[in-house]
């Protein structure tokens, strides 16, 4: 039976939401795929971050990624139409994946009312947008009020990082040939950040110590507008936890966590990637 008071929440697997939260809050996750040669794995279903990164390290070929087929969205939206009055979908940046476009098209094909939002980002900030939407729903806000607020968040979301692999970022089309070549040639550590949905080169650094200093400096400049933030990483858990603890001591009024990059994100940035992510409150 349809419950007209409830909203179906839809996102993709790059949001790295906990299973408990998904089950308790009517969240439906559409997985992207990671392809190693002839083998394809659904992110979060067939492969997790815990077994992806060792496989990435031992693989002789770089994996590829694939967005969900539009048919998967159509089937999901037909199913949700029988249970919910409408839905809210938030997806990874449309500049990096066609998932957003597929979701928009599928909602029309299934004739299910879905407000589809381009997060212009991924990972921790994408997950936080879903958390915030559910929180507003639990506060009794209307569908229109929730959507209106969520649409302000993509332009407030931040993710700055130092990729572990310039080769993977370049081959995945996320970094230009010139930027990747120069970085590899002189062994630079690059800092990249999301800007209007695209991953852009922000700075070139020579040492890991300087990378940390720069990322902390960039965060400090925004810290007055931040209540929650996360150290995002690709299989460098100990370093991420050290950063988290240092930041928590520096900013006692901000809540810090660590977030492991999903396999799809890790495919493009490479093992060893580390950075900071948050959504400005103002």
Q: Which labels suit this protein?
A:
282 residues, alpha/beta, Rossmann fold, Hypothetical Protein Tm841, Chain: A,domain 3, 2 domains, six-stranded mixed beta sheet, four-stranded parallel beta sheet
Polypeptide structure, described:
With 282 residues, the chain is an alpha/beta fold. It has two domains: 3-32 and 67-152, Rossmann fold (3-Layer(aba) Sandwich), CATH 3.40.50; 156-279, 2-Layer Sandwich (Hypothetical Protein Tm841, Chain: A,domain 3), CATH 3.30.1180. It has eleven helices and 13 strands. It has helices at 19-24, 49-58, 70-81, 99-110, 123-138, 143-150, 166-171, 177-185, 208-222, 237-250, 263-269; strands at residues 3-12, 27-30, 33-36, 39-42, 64-66, 84-91, 114-118, 157-162, 189-195, 198-205, 228-233, 255-260, 274-279. The strands form three sheets. Strands 10-9-8-13-11-12 form a six-stranded mixed beta sheet, sandwiched between helices. It has a four-stranded parallel beta sheet with strand order 2-1-6-7, with helices on both faces. A three-stranded antiparallel beta sheet has the order 4-3-5, with helices on one face. α3 (70-81) packs across α4. The longest helix is centred in the middle third of the chain and has 16 residues, at 123-138. The model has no long low-confidence stretch (mean pLDDT 90).
